[in-house]
Design goal:
453 residues, alpha+beta, five-stranded mixed β-sheet
Length: 453
């Protein structure tokens, strides 16, 4: 699936009308099929199939009218419960977490079932004659309407249970965490191919990676629109770079906000940055009015961190919920640490450098998670203990010295909070002991690093 289609699909999934609209269209098709069956076999169906409606026009009209009215009532109740759930979730978890409820397939199917059954009943009501002849009554279609009503009762029971489950912090944090792990597996594959070095005729890369290409021979690609970068079409970018024999460095990653005349990318050599190339490069960036989770794992981290901060606020004061979010953050950081981080240098099939693009590093994500949570945990020894335990799990999976250095700085900051806190002495000693244990693990990993190479 192309990046544009994938981005469109993610947008449709977060819309509350997409699945209900599909179910309504399916009900139009079902009504057409059942009416055709009634027209082709008006007597045989009633005689061959048990349980088929056998009443007259008045009975069919009354039943269909009752079902239709009931479905609208049920749809109204469903809509009211959904709005109440959204309001509660916005207060407890934050407005950004509303996307989980908006894209919830179960709720959309429930609403679509009620509305679709209502539409089906209206379509069948049109076919009921005013005479008293039972042979002209759409018996099979009316029976299907009855079955849809029975199905809707089960769907309503499911919906009440489903919404009660979704409002629990376990469900919300788990949904965000599972989606984050899925995105990590896509953006941080375990096997990313062999490391390639630029060939002699490729543009050279400095050893430290700080000065990759000469700026004097580059051309800037400026943004033309304002908005969040929702996705970057890397496949199209690579094909474009190969076609025009250029090197492109991206200055923005998905999730960043750009304004017109901001530099999006740089192209080498400048002579090949023609208007055609610039127009094609503009199309690889998908911009929108809000961030999306596609290609933006930092948004998942922000959501889990926001849930943690709200749980630790004075209004809610729920450390247990905050610890659940920390568990998922720990799992995500550990998963990234265990995987091979893709190189920022992308080469074509001939080994020539074509694209330079950064991805969030494990050190950056560690700082992002620990800094904000530590600041709201100064008065909660159990939260600091949870952070230290999280650092212990992450430390066991880190591969690179710079990542361990970032985690060591976070541990030092937590220890500074413990030293200056009002905690009881036994709590301080317990936290200090846990801190020293993790620090010893990091130091031991540093000593073992040469041997592991």
């Amino acid at each position: 699936m192309s990046t544009q289609l994938r981005s469109l699909w993610e947008t449709l999934r977060e819309s509350y009308w997409f699945i209900p609209a599909g179910i309504v269209l399916a009900m139009f098709g079902l009504a057409y099929v059942t009416q055709m069956a009634d027209e082709e076999y008006p007597v045989d169906i009633a005689g061959m199939l048990p349980g088929v409606f056998r009443g007259g026009p008045d009975g069919a009209r009354a039943m269909l009218s009752t079902i239709a009215a009931s479905m609208m009532t049920a749809a109204s109740v469903t809509f009211s419960i959904t709005i109440a759930a959204l309001a509660s979730a916005s207060t407890q978890f934050g407005s950004r977490l509303l996307r989980i409820f908006m894209r919830d397939t179960g709720s959309q199917v429930v609403l679509g079932t009620f509305v679709g059954t209502f539409i089906y009943c209206l379509l069948i009501l049109r076919q009921i004659p005013s005479s008293t002849s039972e042979l002209q009554v759409p018996q099979f279609s009316t029976t299907v309407a009855l079955l849809l009503a029975l199905l809707s009762i089960g769907v309503l029971i499911y919906f009440v249970h489903h919404m009660a489950s979704m409002l629990q912090v376990w469900s919300v944090a788990g949904e965000v965490g599972e989606s984050l792990l899925e995105e990590i597996r896509e953006l941080y594959p375990e096997q990313v191919g062999r490391e390639l070095e630029p060939s002699q005729d490729a543009i050279p890369i400095d050893a430290d990676g700080s000065s990759v290409l000469p700026d004097a021979d580059s051309a800037e690609i400026l943004a033309r629109r304002l908005g969040y970068i929702q996705a970057v079409d890397h496949g199209r970018l690579m094909r474009l770079a190969v076609k025009h024999d250029i090197v492109v460095r991206l200055d923005f990653t998905p999730g960043r906000f750009v304004v017109p005349d901001t530099r999006l990318a740089m192209v080498w050599p400048a002579a090949r940055a023609t208007p055609e190339v610039e127009n094609e490069l503009q199309k690889i960036f998908i911009l929108g009015s809000r961030r999306t989770t596609y290609q933006d794992i930092e948004l998942y981290f922000d959501e889990l961190i926001e849930m943690t901060l709200r749980a630790m606020s004075r209004a809610i004061n729920d450390p247990h919920s905050a610890m659940i979010c920390i568990d998922w953050l720990t799992g995500a950081l550990t998963t990234i640490a265990r995987r091979q981080t893709p190189s920022r240098y992308r080469f074509d099939n001939e080994g020539r450098l074509r694209v330079i693009a950064d991805a969030p590093s494990i050190a950056y994500l560690i700082d992002l998670s620990f800094d904000r949570i530590r600041n709201v945990s100064r008065d909660h020894p159990e939260m600091l203990a949870k952070l230290i335990d999280s650092a212990r799990i992450i430390a066991q999976n880190l591969r690179h010295p710079e990542d361990r250095a970032a985690l060591r700085l976070q541990l030092m900051a937590i220890d500074a909070v413990v030293r200056n806190a009002w905690f009881a002495e036994h709590e301080r000693q317990r936290l200090r002991a846990a801190f020293l244990d993790v620090l010893d693990d990091l130091n031991a990993a540093e000593l073992d690093q040469p041997a592991s190479k």
